[in-house]
Structure formats: C-alpha cells, structure tokens
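PT: before anyone asks, these are the final sequences, not the draft ones from last week. 786 residues across everything. Please model them as a single complex and drop the result in this thread when it's through.
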Amino acid sequence: MATLIVTPTSRSIRERSAQLRERDGFLPRLMRMDEFLSRLALVPGRAMIQGSQRILRLREAAEFEGFGRLQKDRGLIRFFARSDDFFRFFEELAWEKVPLERLEEADAYAEYGEHLSVLKELRRRYGARLEAEGFTDRMFLPEHYRFDEAFATRYDRIELHLEGYLSRFEMELLSETAKRSELIVHWRTTPFNEKMRRRFAEEVGIELPEESRLSFSWSQGEILEAERVPLEIASRVLAVEERYEQVALALAEIEGMVRRGIAPERIALVLPREEFASVFDLYDRMGNLNFSMGFDLRSRPEYRIPAAMLAWWQSGEEEDREWLQRLGGAQAVKLSSSRLMDVDEFFSMMSEEGALPGFASEEIPRKRSREADAIDEIRERFVRLHRREKLATREWLFLWIRELEALRLDDVRGGKVTVMGVLETRGVAFDGVVIVDFNEGVVPAQTGKDRFLDSRVRRFAGLPDRQDREALQKHYYARLLEQAREGAILYALGDNRLPSRFLYELGLGDGERVAAPRELLYRSAPLPAVSGDPEVTDFDPTSMIWSASRLQCWLECRRKFYYRYIAGLKEKPDEGINEGQVLHRILDELYRERTHFEEEAQMRRALEETAGRFLASEEVRGLYLGAYWTKVLQDFVRKEIHHFAQGWRVERREMPVEGEIAGLRFTGRVDRLDRQGDNYLALDYKSGSIAASNRQSSLEKLTDFQMSIYARLLRPRYPDLDLAYVPILDGGGYVPPTVPEEKEALLLEHLEALGGTRAFVAQKTDELSRCRYCPYQLLCERGEYL
Ligand code: SF4
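LR: through. Structure below.
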C-alpha cells in the first residue's frame, strides 16, 4: 500500500524518518505540509510570482487615481514596507474564502466601503498585470487552481500529523483529497486549539474530543483513536534581572540536563525572539550549540555598507554619513540616489564605488567564502527577476538589502544542542527544553496591527483574530513543554518587563528569582553588574587630565563617561581600517621630511607612495582606499599647494599641547601647526563632516570643543594664532571655526559647572542617536548592539 506521511516541518520529517528506519519494511514517502498542499493545487500555464517582483507589480497596479484615498505612499521604499499589509489582507481573505463584498456588510467605519472599493480595484489591476505576464500569486490560488487528481490518487493512505491551523481553502484541498484516498489525521487537542476543533465540527462534521491525543479518518468521518490527556506541564520557572543573564542561566540549565542524563542532541533551546541567537553564539565558546535558524549577514561588510548607505540616503544625517565612511564606504557618498538605471548598471556602479563589497572587479583578487558564494547566487536570481525594471539607485539598494536580510547561512559547526525558534518546534519532541524571554508581549508574540481588518470586522467575517493567533503560539509552546522530560522557562524582569501571563494558563505561576552564573560567560572577571544608574560619589574633576574627547563624552552621556573613565572599560579595538586614523598617519608621514610641496604632481606622487606603504597590508580594502583617495584628495592637494605658495610652511606635526582651563588640566595633540612669518595656523584634519563640530546655531547642542580648547592652550605661546579645520576628503581647504568667541564662552560655562561637580549619577543619555555608534550599547541594551 502506497503511504504518504505529511508533517509540519523539515525537522519533523527528519525525526520521523529516523524513527521509521528503526522498523522493518518499506519506508513510506514523507512530505512537508506546505509542499503537500502546493502539490494539490495546480495553476496550469502560470508561474508563481516571487519576492520583490510581487511588490513591484503591486506598486504598478496601484497607479490609479483612487489609490490615494488609502493614504499609502507609492514611493517604493514606503510602499515596500506597507505592501505586506496588502498581501496579508488579500491572501487571508482568499484563503479563508471570504469575498471582499462580505466585508461591506460589516459596517465598520464611515469610509470603509470606499476603502474596500479601492482595494478591490487594486486587486483587480494586480491580477490583470500578473495574468498578462503569465504569473499568478498565492492570493489568487483559491480561484485559479485545479485540483491535482493524479497526485491525490497516487497514495492509498495519507497520514497527516497536524499541529497548526488550517484555513478554509486548505480544508477544501484536504476534503478533496479525503474523497480520493484514505486521509488519516493525527492530532492533539489542547485548550489552545479550540478554534480548530470547532472548525472540524462545522466544516467536516466531526466532533473531536477536548484535551485528547487522537487520530481520525477524514475520509470516513470517524474517530479511530482518542485518549483523554489533560495538559500537564512540569517545568521549572526561573527569573533573572537582566535579559542577558538568561544566557548564562540557559547554559547552566542545559549543563544540568546533560548531567542528569539527557543526551545533548535531545535538548532544544527555544528563542521566542530569534535575534537573541547572536548573543548565544557570542557566548557559546565551547561550540555546544547549533543554530537551526542559521546566521544572517548583518554583521558583515556585504550587508553593513549598503545598509549604512541607504540609512544615510534616507536620513541625510551627518552621523550616518560618517558611519558609512567609517565602515569603508566613503567613496560611495558621492553617488546619486535618484538616478534611474537597470539592474546590471546598479551592480556595476555600486561595486565600482565600493558600496557592495563582495562584488570586486575581476582584477582584484578575492577569497571565495561561503558568504560570497551565497551572495553570488542570490544576485544571479535577483538580476534574472528584475531584468526589465528601471529603478532609482536607492530603490535598487533597498531591494538588494531586503534580499541580503533574507539570506541565511547554515550553521555547519555541529554543536549538539539545537537552538530554534518556536515555529520550528512544530511536530518535534525533545527530552530537555529551555525557553528564554518568557515575558509578556514576547510569549506569545503580539501580532502587528492589522491595517484593514479590526477585530470586529474579523469576527464578523469569521477570520482568525488576535486571540486565535496568540492561542496557536501557546499551543506550540504547550506541546513542546508537555512532551519534554525536563523543561526550564526563563524570563527577565529588568526594564519593567513582566513574566508572560501565559505562565498562569499553563498552571505554573511566577518564577523563582535566581542569580545567573555569570562566570559561565566570561573568561576573565565578569562585567560589572549595573542595575539602576550607578552613582559616583567621590568625583574630583581637578584630579583628572582632561581632553576634548573626554569633555565631549562628559557632555554627551554620563553613563558612557562612567564606563570609560570611572569603571575603565576598554573599548574593543576596531578590526577594520579606521580611515580617519590612517589618513592622519599618512599626512603626518608626508610632512616628516619636508615643510611644503611646490607642485601638485610632486605632492600627489608623494602622497600615493606614502598611502601605498600604509595600505600595503590591507589587501582588497587597501586597494580600494588607495584608488579612492588618489581621486578625492586632488582638491586637497591643489589647496595645499596654493597655501604653500603663499609662504606657509609646516612647522610642527602631532604637536602635544597642555595647560589649565578654568582650573582643569587639559592635554591634546594638534594635527599640524603651520607658520607664515609671525602668523601661525593650527590645523585639525577631518576625514568626516565638520558640520556638527563647526555648528554656528543651536550652540546648546555643541559637545565638541576641541578648537576652543586648542585656542586657549596655544594662545599664550602663539598670540597671532588662527585655527582651521581641514576637511581632507571633502575638498580640502582651511575652514575657520564659526563663532569662536561664543564657543569659548560656552566652554568656560561648561567647565565651571564641571569643576564644581563632586558627585554625579551616571544616567544614560536621552538622545538615543548618540547610542547608535557607542561601544557600550551591549551594556546599556541600546542601539544595534546585537
Ligand atoms: S549606549 Fe547610549 S546610554 Fe549607553 S553609554 Fe553609550 S551613549 Fe550612553
């Protein structure tokens, strides 16, 4: 007898196939649920539209007058972000077999009917576009499909291990299947899948018992087996203060389970928020974990540079531009974001400008890596899909970043304990289960706001609502925990977090407060535990040596000042090339042997040679930077030659300065001091923007007082002193500080207040933008610290 076994996930197929191999006889065919359903529904002569192609077609379909009434932006980037709303809406209605007209009766709000007619038109236009190109979309499947008789009759018996929810369309496909072969469903009813139980009663006419393990024949409409098993969960519940303490505690719980005899292969660590995986990866020094969700590219230059570039194009903020430059994408800042081009031109232009690392030109050697291969593969598909489009550079960049975000590389390191998200646990059982982040709002995850269907309309149309969706997640957690020999549920309380109320539904209640074994995480002494804002009660600013950067840190964030200068936490050294620092060193070296240059060509040659020496060890990135600097430093060279022609000579380089200002001791290092007779000019090289440092309005926001400090320290020795910024990569030249007197007066005000400070509370800054590039994000749980 030909038998097919259908299970929810690939993992559950692997597990079931391992169990079946231990028995005698032929192995039945195994198939994943989504594949099974898609095999039943054919759309002859049409291909399923994919990925970002869907969004581009939907946006084209939105080019009609009435669309504006939905108040949705048609600009691609905004449209893309919102397109999920449309697809979810259309698809859900289609798969639940609810016609749009039915919603008109819901009497939701005054303009609802009008909005529905716009949505109807959008759907019609989108369908017509797809049809013209020989495509279809999941949202049209229930109306376009042809049931695949041949496939459904290929098996005498189909056994379906059901975990999730079935839409009306899916039930229709299964009902058709049940007419053609014996369809057996194995299922577990819990208090959390009541809706599905009712649906079986209404749509299939079969009353299934509550809280039971059961099998029934869909074909015969009869229950084959049913055992009443009330849900019983006996897991430990543990609470810690900080979210990150859960990492140590989870590792300790896993260790305990292994000691008590559970094989590590039979233990799952479940992450309701999968982004937490990178933190576990960081601390898994022994390689015990395997991450079934794989790894993304977000920490790699292939993703970070284009993402930084898009962030800068979207915000126009100087700090975003600086971040892009710091990442090594400086040469890309000059590109136009709005120029229309095709996909090939986009890739070749962006890679030439160094904005897409991983697409180096053929002459530049590059090491092949798993990442490079995977990126090449998605690029080929991307180019194929979008061959006929013409989009603005920023739109291409946006679409490309979305592709990179979706890319996951398998974890091939072979740790024995599996780390997974909750959806992957469907259909599998583990002996040991550890779940972290069991907090309110996380377990179950709150579903996003539905823009077109509020709960009243959903109920009216018989669509699953928020409670139904949350109940389904609860069912998955409950199934996983009830099958485990040992379970540990962890949550954190810091930052006003609450334990999930679901704990009470599981009959477990609040957790035991425990101290996480932090020593598991660190090779050396653990990080200082920071709960609440640290207070510094014996602060003496007069006993410290101050600098412009220390003062800036003090003014920008007391917590950062505390970490860096009181607790002495060292920053992780920058692994890549720091463009600004290298440029400073190159210019220092350039003027080591000579006080000036007379000709541009001579200076350019000397500059190229010096840069070549500094960048020789930096392989590909060095070649890029060398080539880029040669191009952008031309203006800088021209203005230097003009400056020297007026008699200026380099007098000092990297000149140390020190002295007292308002009773506080200051030191610093001036990049360069030039002299012309009795005139002196102190220069500060800037590789990034000078806009924030050299602001002339909103001075209350100024935190960089470097020029004012240098002015006060140098003036006693050089009464005829001028100061200037040199924007090396931005055309060169000598830009004097704006409103210097006002800035000096403000500096003195700050120093007076600082000088009188003897205690302070190390509060985190209110300006979250300052956290964005701060090295202490992890400690503060701010910014993109993951
Ligand atoms: S992350 Fe933000 S709050 Fe924390 S130290 Fe840095 S700047 Fe301050």
